Amino acid sequence: MILERSMIEDIAAALSTHGFILRGGFNFATSDPPPSGPSGAAARSVLLVGQAGAAPWPHFLRWRESQLQTVANPLDTWSREVIGAVANDFGARPVSPSDKPYLPFQQWAVRAEGLRPSPLGILMHPQFGLWHAYRGALLFEDEIELPEPRDVIHLCDACVDKPCLKSCPVDAYSADGFAHETCLAHVRGQSGAPCRTGGCLDRNACPYGTAYRYPPEVQAFHMAAFAGL
User: Domain of life, per the record (predicted)?
Assistant: First the structure.
């Protein structure tokens, strides 16, 4: 059986009521080691779920108002609830990037949308820039009908100045990779106030997808989660 595009459109419509979008998908090849589907048999296909810009934020805030403020990882918890409900309605198994053992979400995203990493490690999207995310995926035991893949422009190739590598006061990102502990100490320290309130300076320096840039309160939320504040 092949899941038709009309069903995929229905899934997209259900997700859109929470600010989520479908982020592409693919059918697993016979050489892939696929995860299990809803019945426990091997999954045949995957649809990625995520966001562009901060569209889910108001939906998340309304949910959070009805929850105990002590709920752990509230954004992950809410995302799991939403994606889980949609999965249940359409006979899929929901999975999350934070599930353990970890699933290869980054590899799935590259395969589904043809994106490549920016110097910051975040996948660069030709429309959304760095302002997008993957929140989960739906696994099916049937193949899905997908449009023909298209070539994707990698905007970083045309970016000569690379301001994303020049704006961090502690040079957390470099050709050597991400200096996690250096970044963490800076964000937690007195001089890290701009990062805590307005987000990563390197990420904000990127000239692409600025119409989708997360508002300061959203960036502050993510930075607090990163820094454990």
Answer: Bacteria
What digits encode the pLDDT tens for the residues 31-48? 898 899 999 999 999 999
The SS3 of residue 16 is helix
Q: Is the peptide bond before 101 cis (omega within 30 degrees of 0)?
A: yes
Write out the DSSP string of 31-70.
Answer: TS---B-TTSSBP-EEEEEEEETTTTHHHHHHHHHTS-TT
94 and 84 Cβ atoms separated by less than 8 Å: yes
Could you give the CA distance from residue 176 to residue 178 in angstroms, rounded to a whole number?
7
Segment (H or E) for 24: strand 21-27
Sequence spans of domains, the chain:
2-154, 159-227
∠ Cα 65 224 53 (to 5°): 70
173 three-state secondary structure: strand
Please write the tens of the pLDDT for every residue from 122-135: 999 999 999 999 99
Q: Which residues pair with 46 in a beta bridge?
A: 26, 139
